[in-house]
Task: structure prediction
Amino acid sequence: MNRFSVLYTLKKHHQHLTFNTRAEAEDALKKLSRHRRGVPIGIYDAKTELFFWEPNRQKKYSQLSFSEQAQEDNAMIAIVQNLRLQAEIASDENQVDLDIMLRPMPRLVHS
Result:
């Protein structure tokens, strides 16, 4: 799975897009901000397990106390990890279905 996830909300539901590089993720975050197809929240790095806030949200985030910042970070990380896990499970289920479809059919012999 891709290392970076862009977290955003669409119709009051959290969604994410995954990317191989941080540059791709940052570009997608900017596009979300410009095109108003969702409300961007930030970027999650699965390797370091860090969350980087969208610039407008970063301003509000920086005004919070350290404990509030930790709570916010942990909440966003938990949401993204859950979304990534759901996507991984769905991908595994699709692979199983494909595997079944590729198995040879047993020959029926009529006597």
Notes: The two ends are 51 Å apart (CA to CA). The chain has a mean pLDDT of 86. The chain is about 55% helix and 25% strand. Residues 66-102 form the longest helix (37 residues).
